[in-house]
Amino acid sequence: MRNVERITSVKSELLDIFMSMEVDEHAERRRSAAQRNLRARRGIELHREFQQLSREIAPLPDEDERQESELH
How far apart are the two ends of the chain, measured CA to CA in Å? Predict the structure, then answer.
């Protein structure tokens, strides 16, 4: 009977170890997914910021063109 109890105990411990490993792996996958999402979101924000800056800093007309338009 003792052997059966020991086997049951070892099985229980192995199951606990396996379950804790699964929980840890799941938590790591969630952290990795969150980091990927944050990097993607920041990339989109940067892209939009650069687009806006490009529009705001659009090339100004040359000095000659401005003087001509002022004369006319």
Answer: 108
User: Which structure tokens are listed for 41?
Assistant: 């979101």
Whether the CB-CB separation of 40 and 33 falls below 8 Å is answered with: no
What is the rounded distance in angstroms from the CA atom of residue 31 to the CA atom of residue 25?
A: 10
Bigger pLDDT: 3 vs 37: 37
Predicted pLDDT at 59: 76
| pTM for this entry | 0.56
Which two tokens mark 59?
A: 């090339």
Nearest CA to 32 among 44, 24, 21? 24
Which amino acid does the sequence have at 44?
I
Q: Give the confidence band of 69 by pLDDT, cuts at 50, 70, 90.
A: low
Beta-carbon contacts of 61 under 8 Å, excluding residues fewer than 6 positions away, are: 69
